[in-house]
Specification:
Keywords: Cell cycle, Cell division, GTP-binding, Magnesium, Metal-binding, Nucleotide-binding, Septation. The chain is α/β, with parallel strands linked by helices. The protein is built from 5 helices and 7 strands. It has a 7-stranded mixed beta sheet with strand order 1-3-4-2-5-6-7, with helices on both faces.
């Protein structure tokens, strides 16, 4: 997909703040610092629309980005970050659950995991949550540039097995550095639009 326009629409914490448009949405879930912002920026050919941070746990709202006036990427707060209070984590959990379980425009969840390591307990819990609510799931294994190409398949297999993925769920390799997997990712997203 050729991206000609992209912008942040709103940072929302409750449903009445969500954009009131019928366009399809793709939510990005993943632990803090896994590369959600880098994924968004690479997909839309922008350096810093989605702000990357060296401080994990920075995203505390649902950030809606509009692309080509045709779809939204929704960046949800990262999980698994210890320096956030339990109260705050619970509030994020409720906010994320409300969005995932009540949003008609949501076409699929993109679960972003780090290809270099087996998915964490939190990644598995998120995958199970999406499965429980029967939400379409696309697993994006980022940071592919940090692993020799010859080991990609081995790492993808570990990801698929650790998450106990359903056969029909997509698992894509991605690099925010090199753009590896970008065209494939757009191809998969188009199927859900």
């Amino acid at each position: 997909m050729k991206v000609t326009s992209s912008d942040i629409v709103i940072s929302a914490v409750k449903p009445e703040q969500y954009p009131n448009t019928p366009i399809p949405e793709f939510a990005l879930a993943g632990r803090s610092n896994v590369g959600k912002s880098s994924f968004i920026n690479k997909m839309i050919n922008r350096k810093n629309l989605a702000r990357t941070s060296s401080k994990p746990g920075k995203t505390q709202t649902l950030n809606f980005y509009i692309i080509n006036e045709a779809l939204h990427f929704v960046d949800v707060p990262g999980y698994g970050y210890a320096k956030v209070s339990k109260t705050e984590r619970d509030a994020w959990g409720r906010m994320i659950e409300t969005y995932f379980t009540s949003r008609d425009q949501l076409r699929a969840a993109l679960l972003i995991v780090d290809l270099r390591h087996p998915p964490t307990k939190d990644d598995i819990a998120m995958y199970e949550f999406l499965k429980h609510y029967d939400l379409p799931r696309i697993v994006i294994a980022t940071k592919a540039d940090k692993i020799p190409k010859g080991k990609w398949q081995k790492h993808l297999k570990v990801t698929r097995q650790t998450l106990n993925m359903e056969r029909e769920d997509e698992l894509l390799l991605f690099s925010g550095e090199t753009g590896e997997g970008k065209e494939q990712a757009w191809g998969v997203l188009k199927k859900y639009m």
